[in-house]
Amino acid sequence: MNNDCLAALSAGAGRAISDDEADRLLSKLQAHQRMIELDRPLMSAHDVAVEAARRVGEDLKQAAFIQRRNALLNATIRAERVQWIINNFGARPAEGLEALLVGVNRAKQGARNSVAAVQKTLRDRVLGGFVYDLEKINATKLFASGALDRDVARAMWAIGRPNEVEMTRGLAPMALEIARVINKWQEYVRTSSNDAGAWIGQRAGYIVRQSHDMLRIRNAGYQAWRDAADRFFDLPRMMAKSGATNADALLKAVHTELASGNFMRLVTEVENQPFKGPGNLAKKISQERIIYFKDADSWFDYNQQFGSRSLREAVASGLSHGAEQLGLLRQLGPNPEAMIGSIAQQLREYAANNGEFSVSDAIKAATDPRIGSLKKYMAAVDGTMRIPGNALWARRFAGIRAWQSLAKLGGMILSQFNDVAVYGSEAKYQGRGFLSGMAESMVGLGTNLKTEERRELLSSLGVFFESALGEIARTGSFDDAGALTRSQSLFFRLNLGQWWTEKMRAAAAMGMSHHMALQIGKTWDALEPEYRRVLSLYDLDGPKWDVIRQSALKQVDDRPYIAPDTIGQVSDDVVRTYLQSVGKQAGEKEIAAARADLADKVQTYFNDRTGFFQLEPDAKTRAILLQGTQPGTWLGEFTRLAMQFKSFTGAYMQKIMGRELYGRGYEGMNPIKALGAGNGEALGLANVVLISTLFGYGSMLAKDLMRGQTPRVPSSDPTEDLKLFVAAMAQGGGMGLMGDFLFGSANRFGGGPISTALGPSFGALNDIVMLYQNARDDAIEGKSGNIAANALRVALNNAPYLNLFYTRIALDYIVFYRLQEMLNPGYLSRMEQRVRTQSNQQFILPPSSVVR
Questions:
Q1: Under DSSP, is residue 311 helix (H, G, I), strand (E, B) or coil?
Q2: Are 291 and 233 in contact (CB under 8 A)?
Q3: pLDDT at position 772, please?
Q4: What's the whole-model pTM score?
Q5: d(Cα 316, Cα 319) in Å, to the nearest integer?
């Protein structure tokens, strides 16, 4: 670049332009020139240069605007979050940072309105709305089947192009309708992300966030992948965009990135983005694609060969990923990692200036990048905990855990009886009745959720059912649903776990919505104290309640309901009055923003508390149990294997017991002192533990009957009765993880001590080792027969689908007991004797009496 050009640039900028800045501007100019020449080959060189310069100028104006806007967003969010922590967690600001990321049970204003809660709410809103829109056009099953995937991809490719009508002519009409639904929710995520600090342009020809299967790419080898790239990629556009002069060098770099296994992030071009700072999420999600496809068929064929293959999974994954990123942006601004660091630094300085050096030290310890407790929470909400350290091993171990789910969870519903007790305890915590809550859950199990009115209500409440897209219900593992097999989806329908979970979740959301509708005639001060407390956890207060009270009501089955979309229809005058009452500006933009924010908080309340009614592990539970580790690493996989099926226990201790001890006003940290705080902690904990124990005992009885054994009942032996009581307490979750360790034979999923301590995979390995040792000992002693029968038992206990609670007992008596007796005569009599000796039980119909 000659001196005249540099002088002109400096004059235009009003300051001296460095050589590096000039080089970057020249690179931008050349990139625009290449793209213009590609799109408009007949344009003269002069006109191309002028148009390229105009676009560079627009880019620079846009960059300046975005930087100013994001600086304001960061400053506003930082000030609000710091003040909120000081006001509510002044004595323990480190706990305030935890509340900001994953929520705490402390009875503080906004203590549950966390990044994690907002992320889940947005994800369920987007996926729930997407599913509901598909259902409205009767396309859910058709889309899930994949029968129209190619036509849907073609329609997506055409949307937004000048010749869209011509390009979609001849496509299946339903494919075009499905494509419009997909585009609607992708646009919602894009525009909402832009409002929160990103800058994602509208792209014609965008189908879905591209997935790449590392193993397929690696196994195919570079040349096969390179041949596919020649067929499918728009190489001229990719080279023009990237500035590459050698196509093979460009593709080699892309292949290396994809085959490395780091497919959790997009392969993108980042140099032209107007965002600064480490870990800048807004920059990451605003990046341009470096891979361009020739047409929709090229995208589809590449996805079949090297991607996820399923358009449904790709769409669901893209929407879910985008919603979670949006939650981060809304709560922590364009640069979440730097925001947490900045907030922590301000809190440390505030504490030090007040002479509270121990408080400052506690913040420093919590935010330590190596061992700080907030590290694992940040990993849970920013997605780090899902990025594989080694993708190949992550997939292999995920397969092992999936196999164990299929082999061990056939009787899962028999372990879920105490969900009714958990439901009642949450109703009690919200100021309703324990028994009425339990009754509500039981009625919910019989409610038909397929009616149009109820489907619309659940969609507006943000309740999303994974099964609607062919995914699985709650399994107790922490793998992404897209990584599991179709057999699991079928399995969790067959074992009724999916049915139970969906019915209970729906009952909880509708129950809260109906209860809120019944309260709108009351002022804030007239509400039950418990109800005010739970609403305040989501930053709802008196002035906001006055707005909610003006909301219209939905009428479903002659019952009133309040939903976020009804709050979104409250008049401008009502919202203006609210803003003025709290000393805020009340312009048109402020009114719209306040209305949307209030609807979001109500939906977060419904969504988050649903996970307390129908207990499910949240981001905090996963962070605690997995300690922020990544899949595909030795520590990460060991932790995931050990924690499989322990999510319920972890959630019970973290959410239910934590709620009873710390969610009623107690300010300390000592759980023993909490029981004597006088806010109802002792009574609340006793109620939930005792009733959970009762339902746990019911689960034990059901399991005994499904095994064909006489139920364990209290006897005249105090020692045996105590064992029975503690086992029921462990089964119900009341003793949590400690109970599972002490009474492994009575854990929630029926596993033994090794399975309880180290997970079902290690339990299966232990069975194999024991099988080998017994065979060795039998050979030394000259015995025979035991090895075959024991091998059959181990095989049956690890065989998928054979453990369904309503088929296993029939298979045992018809097939498996006969095989075991044939392989080892006398095996059944010895088994009956062990049952009598070890558990003081008998078989209702002794197997030895049936098998002759």
A1: helix
A2: yes
A3: 81
A4: 0.87
A5: 5
